[in-house]
Amino acid sequence: MNSHERRRARLLERAGVDAYLVFSLDRTMPAGMDLVGLRYLTGYTGEGALVVTEAETTLVTDSRYLEQAKIEVPDVEIVHAEGDYLDDLARLLSRRKIERMGYSAWRTTDHVISELRRRTQVEWITHGDPVSELRTEKDAEELAVLRRAIDIAERALGELLPAVRPGAGEVDLASELTARMRALGADGVLGPTVASGSNSALPHYVPALGRRILREGDFLLIDFGAVVDGYVSDMTRTFVVGRATEKQRDIYAYVDRAVNAGLAALRAGVPGRDVHAAASRVIEQSPYAEYVFLSPVGHGVGLEVHEQPKMGPQMSAGVPRGAVVTMEPGIYIPGYGGVRIEDTAVATETGCEVLNRLPRSKLIELLA
Fold first, then answer.
1. Phi/psi at 276 (nearest 5 deg)?
2. Mean pLDDT, to the nearest integer, of 309-329?
3. CA 358, CA 54: separation in Å to the nearest integer?
4. pLDDT tops 80 at residue 94
5. Residue predicted with more confidence, 166 or 203
6. Are residues 128 and 190 in the same domain?
């Protein structure tokens, strides 16, 4: 049994159904609603409808993806949808004599399910998002891919830093970092966010908003990642362009301590809110308490850049073993600048393993 077969078996067991539907088709739904579910369960990267049963797995797709599907998922039965997808899917369910079908209410529109109810005699069993729940626990194959994505991102950043100097543009640096990740083997990229000066106090700043030019003494926050085989890395580093002030060093030190505190609290079974509290407490007890972050201190990462679990104050469930999560506290001072440091770690029974290798304990000055 390969990894995709094991995942499908676990899905049926977790959902408690004999059959399960994963549907992602931009002709009938918003684009890309569950492409990650299709990929996670089969390795297929196109659109279509996946019907999973204990005995067999069938992919319904159209001529745009037919040859691609034959190459990517040779172990899965493929049905060519020549007309109305929903009619073809309804006929398949009738032939399979499927009586009860599970689906994700979070990933499937009401339009699709109501049409399938009308066209079939199937009892439709709604779930939250069991595939995403399975995806929180990364297997060895997934961890290997994520390590490659992190390595590419870190190497690209190392290559970029010599080009950082006063007069460089945020947009230009973002483009250069993207090109370097691509050249090192990334299939795609996350971001990048390149925020300098007061822009670094905007947690989700987009460089194109202002096209700011770097100046001596700026904070420079870079949030980015590489995509490898569909898996996304996510990291942030903050630097100073030129010489740092004592205040900049102080802010950076508190954020670094917050990262360390969060990672020290992270282990399988610990509620995410406890991890969040450990990291946020460092900043709440600092001179910068009024700028403590309000959003979750971290999140799962994998086929999507924001997955479960979330390291937030509302998360009472324990972090699953094998969950890959970010730790990204920050201090953001409006009009002045901000610091965020983001590492990625995998939760283990005894603690966590940090997957990043790029040092972060000291504020780096980028000197021309």
1. -60, -45
2. 93
3. 44
4. yes
5. 166
6. no
- Would you call 202 exposed, middle or buried from its count of C-beta atoms within 10 A (0-12, 13-18, 19+)? middle
Residue 191 reports pLDDT greater than 80: yes
Total number of residues shown for the chain: 368
Tell whether the model's pLDDT for residue 28 goes beyond 70: no
Position 214 pLDDT exceeds 90 = yes
CA distances to 41, 199, 202 from 216, in Å: 50, 14, 19
Nearest one of 303, 221, 291, 227 to 258, comparing CA atoms:
291
Instruction: Locate 303 and state its tokens.
Output: 């086929």
The set of residues, in sequence order, having a beta carbon less than 8 Å from that of 27 and lying 6+ positions away, is 85
Instruction: Please indicate, yes or no, whether residues 117 and 154 belong to a single structural domain of this protein.
Output: no
Whose CA is closest to 282, among 263, 249, 258?
A: 258
Residue-wise pLDDT for 254-312, tens only, equals: 999 999 999 999 999 999 999 999 999 999 999 999 998 778 999 999 999 999 998 89
Same domain, 322 and 355: yes
| 111, 145: one domain | no
CA 19 to chain centre: 27
Number of folded domains that form the chain: 2
Are 40 and 180 within one domain? Answer: no
Report DSSP letters for 333-366, one per residue: ETTTEEEE-BEEEEE-SSSEEE---S--SSPPEE
Do 150 and 124 fall into the same domain?
Answer: no
Taking the CA atoms of residue 243, residue 247, residue 251 and residue 256 in that order, the dihedral angle to the nearest 10 degrees is 50
Residues 6 or more apart in contact with residue 2 via CB below 8 angstroms: 75
Residues 130 and 151 occupy one common structural domain: no
DSSP state of 311: E
Residue 259 sits in a domain of what CATH number?
Answer: 3.90.230.10
